[in-house]
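for the recovery benchmark. tokens below, seq after
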């Protein structure tokens, strides 16, 4: 699959309420949490967009642009729409955006490659990773064609990725893993301790 028509997007606009501070900026081992996902995805895309409402630190690269949500408090779907609007407003040629959370330090580049290679873009407009019977709603590939529908539904009050994706007819890409869970995400300080133990 050609990745030239895909924009990589890290959704870092969450409030991190359960964590108590901006978790993207927390140190895990010798680097910031956000840099774990960036280091795994940066080589796959021509550009990566960070959507955050804070002036965050991250691994610097000419490929990376940092922007704020076009409107606050819309949740992850708002971050997705923000990225789509950025594509349109900047006259970019991307037809898809590939989204990632900021809090999964064990996700690896090979999983991303496998996910994208298993997708037939002619078969749908939205694809999520599913592993060990769990669907990961932030690891997705979204067609830019969804922009108007997404904006319309956000205006109506829809906030849940799960509900909206099901209404669109999301396709699941099944993946298997053994040993360490690559989708382990850090929501609390307790999760951070577990991640440190698993480094």
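predicted aa per position
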């Amino acid at each position: 699959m050609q990745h030239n028509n895909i924009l990589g997007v890290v959704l870092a606009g969450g409030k991190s309420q359960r964590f108590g501070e901006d978790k993207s900026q927390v140190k895990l081992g010798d680097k910031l949490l956000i840099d774990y996902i960036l280091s795994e995805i940066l080589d796959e895309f021509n550009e990566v967009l960070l959507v955050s409402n804070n002036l965050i630190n991250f691994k610097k690269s000419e490929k990376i642009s940092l922007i704020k949500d076009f409107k606050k408090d819309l949740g992850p779907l708002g971050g997705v729409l923000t990225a789509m609007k950025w594509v349109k407003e900047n006259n970019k040629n991307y037809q898809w955006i590939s989204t990632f959370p900021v809090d999964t330090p064990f996700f690896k580049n090979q999983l991303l490659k496998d996910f994208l290679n298993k997708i037939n873009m002619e078969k749908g407009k939205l694809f999520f990773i599913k592993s060990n019977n769990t669907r990961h709603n932030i690891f997705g590939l979204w067609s830019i064609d969804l922009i108007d529908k997404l904006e319309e539904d956000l205006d109506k009050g829809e906030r849940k990725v799960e509900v909206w994706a099901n209404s669109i007819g999301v396709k699941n890409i099944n993946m298997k893993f053994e040993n360490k869970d690559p989708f382990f995400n850090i929501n609390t300080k307790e999760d951070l301790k577990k991640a440190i133990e698993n480094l």
